[in-house]
């Protein structure tokens, strides 16, 4: 290593203007603003000026031009890279909350584009020319699909629960089973939401068993609501007894107290036929007599982030008048995407194909295996030696705190390379463009093809080959 500081090297550094004339910089200027590119070039020159003055630069003088250019490109790329970026989800977790949960259907994406690239009738009734409601486009669809009298949509299900409790039980008591005091990721806990809403939680029963008699004993003149929470992200198994929504409705009728069911991952299509656990649908819960039912728009429904509230008109109308509704109101992207998603449900024969979440959850293992084979073949044709690629069996998850015990059989492409540890491979692929997130399991890097879209296979192979081949080169 050269340790003498050779200041004469500074004279070899190119000028900003010279680098700006390079054809690779010209290409950057077509997509990025000039000041950003100039800043990148200045940053690169600064970097090498310091390296020379510290005596850290050990290369040849004639390499400097090329190095400054490469550094400039890298700095501009880092500066202009979006913070929120596309990810290829190879985890096999269909509703991956950290990866944005549900993918929108094609028609939902088009609907968002249509109402955001032009003005829309968000709050105007085009027949009368008078003020309209932003909820109208989805209200009627929701009541038709669920059988409920009325509907309201807010930002997410957490706010739906908060709004319902705050409207129906503020300053009063709400009875909940001890077995249903759920915590959902991101610190949404039923007791805490209850406190925020101004309602008082009355816990009844035991963790594993709550009988109808426990609810009856808990009722006082201050009871405003009987709350049933679907324990969507865990199961209590063994010696158990849960009081059903039907039973709660019966108790509610005896005492004139409304019943609310927080379904969490509410769905409209029964997936039990496809090997998924039998769970109560929104329609079944409404038919069971629940007065208020809340569920997420971006869990099993497969739409945009939203909190959907359906139920008896008198309760929904009261919620609409609560000032909190204004604070948690949905925007036009949500209305557009939700309307399009709901419309897919009227096409019974095609809904499973049209809504990506439902398609991924019901995808046959044959189709997944075929996609795995395609990825493995593409990888093998692109990769230099030293990488072992094979197909293994495993299981995917529903995710989003839904159906935690469901194990969906799947096929994974497993990669092991001598040039990178599996953890390093995972880091490099997360930093790639687009980012790839998969599983590190059994000392292998495993890609679950259930959540990789058919049209992503080529791109995924290309990104992986880029990372694996450059690791191989730097090892040699
Ligand atoms: C997921 C979930 C929520 C929160 O829904 P978000 O749409 O994520 O706000 C509330 N309750 C239950 C039971 C859930 O599963």
Automatic annotation (TrEMBL):
The modification N6-(pyridoxal phosphate)lysine is found at residue 299. One of its GO terms (cellular component) is cytoplasm. One of its GO terms (molecular function) is L-seryl-tRNA(Sec) selenium transferase activity. Residues 10-49 form the L-seryl-tRNA selenium transferase N-terminal domain. It comes from the Bacteria. The keyword Transferase applies. Pfam families: Se-cys_synth_N, SelA. Its EC number is 2.9.1.1. The keyword Cytoplasm applies. It is found in: Cytoplasm. Keywords: Cytoplasm, Protein biosynthesis, Pyridoxal phosphate, Selenium, Transferase. It catalyses: L-seryl-tRNA(Sec) + selenophosphate + H(+) = L-selenocysteinyl-tRNA(Sec) + phosphate. Pathway: Aminoacyl-tRNA biosynthesis; selenocysteinyl-tRNA(Sec) biosynthesis; selenocysteinyl-tRNA(Sec) from L-seryl-tRNA(Sec) (bacterial route): step 1/1. Its cofactor is pyridoxal 5'-phosphate. Signal peptide: none annotated. Its main location: cytoplasm. InterPro entries: PyrdxlP-dep_Trfase, PyrdxlP-dep_Trfase_major, SelA-like, SelA_trans, SelA_trans_N_dom. GO terms for biological process: conversion of seryl-tRNAsec to selenocys-tRNAsec; selenocysteine incorporation. Belongs to the SelA family. Converts seryl-tRNA(Sec) to selenocysteinyl-tRNA(Sec) required for selenoprotein biosynthesis. This is L-seryl-tRNA(Sec) selenium transferase. It comes from Desulforamulus profundi. The lineage of its organism: Bacteria, Bacillati, Bacillota, Clostridia, Eubacteriales. The gene is selA.
């Amino acid at each position: 290593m050269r340790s003498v500081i050779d200041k004469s090297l500074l004279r070899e550094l190119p000028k900003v203007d010279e680098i700006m004339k390079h054809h690779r910089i010209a290409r950057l200027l077509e997509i990025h603003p000039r000041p950003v590119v100039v800043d990148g070039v200045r940053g690169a020159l600064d970097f090498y000026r310091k390296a020379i003055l510290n005596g850290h630069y050990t290369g040849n003088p004639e390499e400097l031009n090329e190095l400054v250019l490469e550094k400039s490109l890298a700095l501009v790329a880092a500066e202009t890279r979006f913070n929120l970026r596309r990810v290829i989800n190879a985890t096999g977790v269909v509703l991956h909350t950290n990866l944005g949960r549900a993918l929108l259907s094609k028609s939902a994406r088009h609907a968002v584009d249509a109402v955001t690239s032009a003005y829309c009738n968000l709050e105007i009734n085009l027949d009368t020319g008078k003020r309209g409601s932003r909820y109208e486009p989805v209200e009627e669809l929701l009541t038709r699909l669920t059988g409920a009298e009325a509907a309201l949509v807010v930002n997410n299900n957490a706010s739906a629960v908060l709004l319902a409790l705050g409207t129906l039980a503020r300053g009063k008591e709400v009875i909940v089973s001890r077995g249903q005091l759920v915590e959902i990721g991101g610190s949404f806990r039923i007791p805490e939401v209850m406190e925020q809403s101004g309602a008082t939680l009355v816990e009844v029963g035991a963790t594993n068993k709550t009988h109808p008699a426990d609810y009856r004993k808990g009722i006082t003149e201050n009871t405003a609501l009987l709350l049933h929470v679907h324990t969507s992200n865990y199961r209590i198994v063994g010696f158990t007894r849960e009081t059903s929504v039907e039973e709660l409705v019966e108790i509610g009728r005896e005492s004139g107290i409304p019943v609310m069911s927080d379904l969490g991952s509410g769905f409209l299509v029964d997936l039990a036929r496809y090997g998924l656990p039998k769970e109560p649908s929104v329609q079944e819960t409404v038919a069971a007599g629940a007065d208020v039912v809340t569920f997420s728009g971006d869990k099993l429904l497969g739409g945009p982030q939203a909190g959907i509230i359906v139920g008896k008109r008198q309760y929904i109308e009261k919620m609409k008048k609560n000032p909190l509704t204004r604070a948690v109101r949905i925007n036009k992207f949500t209305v557009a995407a939700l309307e399009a998603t709901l419309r897919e449900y009227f096409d019974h024969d095609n809904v499973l194909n049209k809504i990506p979440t439902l398609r991924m959850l019901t995808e046959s293992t044959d189709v997944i295996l075929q996609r795995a084979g395609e990825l493995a073949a593409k990888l093998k044709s692109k990769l230099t030696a030293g990488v072992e690629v094979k197909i293994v069996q495993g299981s995917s998850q529903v995710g989003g705190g839904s159906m935690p015990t469901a194990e969906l059989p799947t096929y994974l492409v497993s990669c092991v390379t001598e040039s990178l540890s599996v953890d390093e491979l995972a880091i490099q692929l997360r930093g790639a463009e687009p980012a790839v997130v998969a599983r590190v399991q059994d000392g292998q890097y495993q890609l679950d093809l259930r959540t990789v879209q058919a049209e992503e296979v080529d791109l995924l192979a290309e990104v992986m080959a880029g990372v694996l081949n450059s690791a191989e080169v730097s090892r040699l």
